[in-house]
Design a protein that fits this description.
alpha+beta, single chain, four-stranded antiparallel beta sheet, about 10% strand, 10 helices, globular, 4 strands
Length: about 210
């Protein structure tokens, strides 16, 4: 899925950033998939994530709020779309191993640095079915993209463009001025991405670089 694919940044910045997407497919395995999506979400929340959720829900999906969120957004809902962001290779591998063992018949997509994601798949006993590569941004980039790459790096963590450059620039200025801490700035941006693929831990690290200037 392309909305998790186009995160920008240096290799160092991206090395602990692994968005995951899980959903059923219309005309293939969607009908009656709600129980399997529920089981898949139960597995994901057992592991440490920077963000996780179901499209339509507001708060991060956790063990504590799982029953409430699942009842509203997964139970009897074959179209539920589940996302998570892992920051640890070990946690990602452990989750993938359990998902493989569960064999729920639901498509799972993991994005990240090509070599690292492949290595995690192999450690999990999985062979990637399909591979998408991002070719970057084409067109009038000098005029349309912010001059500060860090703004784009934060904004691109929401693949549907729900965190605009102007919002990131405003938060970065407030962080630089001491009106917000980097953690507070990241927390302010996170809910705007309703897919739950925004990585607040990475955003905090990037925003912290504005303090250090």
């Amino acid at each position: 899925m392309s909305h998790t694919l186009h995160r920008s940044g240096t290799e160092e910045s991206l090395k602990n950033d692994f968005p995951m997407l899980a959903m059923s497919a219309g005309g293939f395995n969607r009908d009656g998939s709600a129980p399997r999506l529920l089981e898949l979400a139960k597995i994901i929340v057992k592991y440490e994530t920077a963000n996780a959720g179901i499209i339509g829900s507001t708060d991060k999906l956790t063990v504590e709020n799982f029953d409430k969120v699942a009842k509203e957004f997964i139970t009897d809902t074959d179209t539920a779309i589940i996302h998570a962001v892992f920051t640890s290779e070990d946690e990602l591998v452990a989750c993938l191993k359990e998902l493989k063992q569960a064999d729920l018949g639901i498509s799972v997509v993991v994005s990240g640095l090509f070599d690292t994601v492949h290595e995690c798949c192999h450690k999990s006993g999985l062979e990637p079915h399909t591979i998408n590569n991002s070719l970057g941004v084409w067109g009038n980039t000098e005029e349309k993209l912010p001059s500060d790459e860090r703004i784009k790096d934060v904004s691109s963590m929401c693949g549907h463009g729900m965190i605009p450059f102007s919002l990131v620039e405003d938060v970065a200025e407030k962080v630089k001025a001491g009106k917000l801490t980097p953690k507070q700035g990241a927390a302010k941006l996170t809910p705007t991405c309703t897919c739950h693929i925004f990585n607040p831990e990475r955003a905090e690290r990037i925003l912290n670089s504005f303090v250090e200037m």
